[in-house]
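Quick one: C-alpha cells for this chain, please?
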Amino acid sequence: MSTGQGPFVTSPHLIGLLIVTARLAQEQVTIRLATLGVSYAQAAVLVRLYRSASGSVPQSDMIESLAVSRASGTLVLGELQTRGLVRRTADPTDARRLVIELTDAGRALEHPVHGAFQEVESVIRGSLDQDEVRAAFDVMRRMFEDIRSRRRTRS
C-alpha cells in the first residue's frame, strides 16, 4: 500500500477523461466509416497515405505511426491489401523493406474517409472558439510527445 498520495488519488485525473473522450470520438468516427466498409484502423492507414506527398510510406514507419504492435499493424495492412485499397511492394532502395502505397481504389475513398473524420472534428470544435482550439492542440501535442517519448513497445 502506498503511503504517499499523488495527483491521481487526490484530485481529478486527466487520463480517465482523455481515454473516455478518445473512445467516444473514435466510436463516432467508426460508425461513419462503417458505411464505407472501412474500420477505424484501416482508415488511419489510409489517412496517413493520403497525407504523404508520394502516396506511399515504408511499412515499418506506418506501423510505428499507428502505435500498434507489428502483428496488429501487419494484419491491418493485409486487410487493406486484400480489399485492393493498398499494395505492398519492395522498397526500390532496400529490397528488405516493404513500402505501402495507395491503389486507385484506395484513392477513391479519400473524400468519404476524410468526410467521416471531418464530421466528428466539427462536433469536437463546435463548443470551442479558435483560441481554445489552438490551446487544445498545443496541450494535446505536448502530452502526445511526452507519452510517445516514454513509450514501451510490444511486439
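The chain has a mean pLDDT of 90.
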